Amino acid sequence: MRQFYEAAAYDPAWPGSHWAGTAPLPAFGPLQGEARAQVAVIGAGYAGLNAALALARGHGMDVAVLEAAQPGWGASGRNGGFCCLGGAKLDDAAVVARHGMQGARDWRAYQRRAITHVAALLEAEEIDARQGPQGEALLAHSPAAFAALQAGAEAEAALHGAAPRLIPAGALAEQGLAGPGFFGAALGAEGFPLDPMRYVQGLAQAVSGAGARIWGQSPVTRLEEVAGGWRLTTPSGSLTAAKVLIAGNGYAPEDLQPWLSGRTLPVFSAILVTRPLTAEERAAQGFTSPLMSYDSRHLLHYFRHLPADSSGGGRFLFGMRGGLSARPKAEAETLARLRKHFEALFPAWRHAQTETAWSGLACLTGSLAPYVGPVPGAPGLFAAFGWHGNGVAAASLGGAEVARLIVGAPTTLPALLTTPPRRFPLPSLRRLALRAAYTAYALRDGPLPR
Ligand SMILES: Cc1cc2nc3c(=O)[nH]c(=O)nc-3n(C[C@H](O)[C@H](O)[C@H](O)COP(=O)(O)OP(=O)(O)OC[C@H]3O[C@@H](n4cnc5c(N)ncnc54)[C@H](O)[C@@H]3O)c2cc1C
Known about the structure:
The chain is an alpha/beta fold. The chain has helices at about 45-60, 90-125, 145-160, 195-210, 280-285, 330-345, 395-405, 415-420, 430-445, and strands at about 35-40, 65, 80-85, 135-140, 165-170, 185-190, 190-195, 215, 220-225, 230-235, 235-245, 265-275, 290-295, 300-310, 315-320, 355-365, 370-375, 380-385. The strands form 3 sheets. Strands 1, 2, 8, 9, 10, 11, 17 and 18 form an 8-stranded mixed β-sheet that branches. Strands 5-6-4-13-14-15-12-16 form an 8-stranded mixed β-sheet, sandwiched between helices. Strand 13 and strand 14 form a beta hairpin. Helix 1 (about 45-60) packs parallel to helix 4. The termini are far apart. The structure holds flavin-adenine dinucleotide.
């Protein structure tokens, strides 16, 4: 199979995350021999597992999930755990230009519904994954960025009926949001932090409990149309199904299906987690807020305090864009850059060692928006992918919604998600273009605080 990055990025031996130990689940064994199902799902992340759960429990279908490694091995078990708005790389103006005011409102309603969907799922399945209060903080990285947040708040209220609460620079300290690189904030009321691995593994258990089969260590290496459906080949067996959902997102091979090829751009994001910080250490930085937080840079940083451990100290999670290669040297450089940015933004914690650091793949599309729907020209084949930086909520609901499409039930998907993404103009130059975009964005974002 042709992959976008070097083979190491797709190897189950690729380093796992801080979350790997938070929800140990027995491994799912591989598919062996011949099997059949009504629906096959490729990929056991939030999208694939939400679809499998809805299909098996909600619609009584016979479902089988094939996962190259183990449930949650992809982005769903290694992300920052921000269950928040987002999912496209387009601002409101761009969505309005494509789909009108109503299209933009529909897209926002989807994002809100996605958060509610995850919250309800955690409760219904008794998944103990919630990690903090509702809401998020967007921190301005410059005075000009705060002015832009102020200007944007009115437009936000006019379009979506709610504006964020603006906090000027001078009031950041009393909100526990102080730092040398922050010049004001916009507090949003939606979303909540969670343990991503507990969520995805809880989901896998619910899927198994609903009667669906999950096979781990079963990469689909070939997908071909056969009489009555599709045949999925893995190294140790094959599965035939009438319908197939491709939910491999940033990890799906480039040549799994011709229509998909060149329409996605997998991008690395990287995270570090510090050793537990004492209450005094947290206070010394002035950044004590339990809110999920991120800054206004194009190449944004995202960060949050993790819940206190038994010693009373809580670790700090800090993430940003990853590298352009999975080679060991490039990965080491990525993690060193990550640490440098962390120390620049939170200088009082320079002495707090990194306990774990890792990277994983998110997925952009040629249209800068996700897609949930049938694969054009391939009857019975569906896809849900391209959540950009924010798929905890959006991919979860996308999975549940694509299940409705698969059984022919009506959905309330916004036009933004049902418009097939265009192919990147010169797919073979995607990595080069990404390098150029990172350089341009870094210049626009300006220097880190010194
Ligand atoms: C480091 C990082 C931090 C992030 N932080 C956040 C965050 O805080 N909040 C947020 O909303 N989003 C975040 N994201 C994005 C979010 O994690 C993803 O959008 C979301 O998990 C995508 O879910 P998914 O099910 O579509 O894909 P994935 O979780 O990536 O799952 C795809 C699965 O498909 C499997 N697969 C692929 N090809 C095959 C094949 N041929 N055969 C069998 N299996 C296959 C893979 O092994 C993988 O397990 C982050 C992403 C990363 C990488």
